[in-house]
Amino acid sequence: MKLTIPGEFPSLNQYIDAERSCWQAAATMKKNCTDSVAWLASTKKPIETYPVRVSFHWYVKNRKIDLDGIAGFGTKALLDGMTKGGLIAGDSLKYVQGLVHTVSVDKENPRVEITLEGMEDELDH
């Protein structure tokens, strides 16, 4: 299953800066990102077989950010949004057992392409 989220997410450093300046600014940032993902996720058929591996392909405008800065805040907002939108039942290890991150540059069309795929329950073996 694939889901594409247009635009760029705030970096982890931007989120931390917002937290340090005003907790409400950080909360609003997180809520806005989560809600936009939830809306898009609600348009897809819910995943029925668990656990899944979630692959994130981040398309950024330039190479001025590092992977942990891109993925740190974004992963949390994306998983929470997919849960809130009903695409996945939750983001605990019961439901999500793998995360894969890839980054490419696309100056004209920044986005995140998310692929969810079933996987063997490796924690029970």
Topology summary:
Layout: E1 2-6, H1 12-21, H2 23-41, E2 52-60, H3 67-84, E3 96-105, E4 111-118
Parallel strand pairs: 2-3
Antiparallel strand pairs: 1-4, 2-4
Helix pairs in contact: 1-2, 2-3
What are its keywords?
38% helix, alpha+beta, 4-stranded mixed sheet, 3 helices, 60s Ribosomal Protein L30, Chain: A, 4 strands, globular, 26% strand, 125 residues
Tell me what you see in this structure:
There is one protein chain. With 125 residues, this protein is of the alpha+beta class. It has one domain: 60s Ribosomal Protein L30, Chain: A (2-Layer Sandwich), CATH 3.30.1330. 38% of the residues lie in helices and 26% in strands. The protein has three helices and four strands, in the order E-H-H-E-H-E-E. It has helices at residues 12-21, 23-41, 67-84, and strands at residues 2-6, 52-60, 96-105, 111-118. It starts with a strand and ends in a 7-residue tail after the last strand.
- The CATH topology name reads 60s Ribosomal Protein L30, Chain: A
CATH uppermost class = Alpha Beta
Summarize the main sheet: 4 strands, mixed
DSSP E strands, number:
4
Structural class computed from helices and strand pairing: alpha+beta
Oligomer: single chain
Q: Spatial order of the strands in the main sheet?
A: 1-4-2-3
Annotation field: number of helices: 3
Number of domains: 1
* Rg from Cα: 15 Å
Per CATH, which architecture?
2-Layer Sandwich
Unreliable spans are none
Strand content range: 25-35%
Distance between the termini: 26 Å
Shape type: globular
**What is the ordering of alpha helices and beta strands?**
EHHEHEE
Q: Would you tell me the overall average pLDDT?
A: 92
Tell me roughly what share of residues is in helical segments. Answer: 25-40%
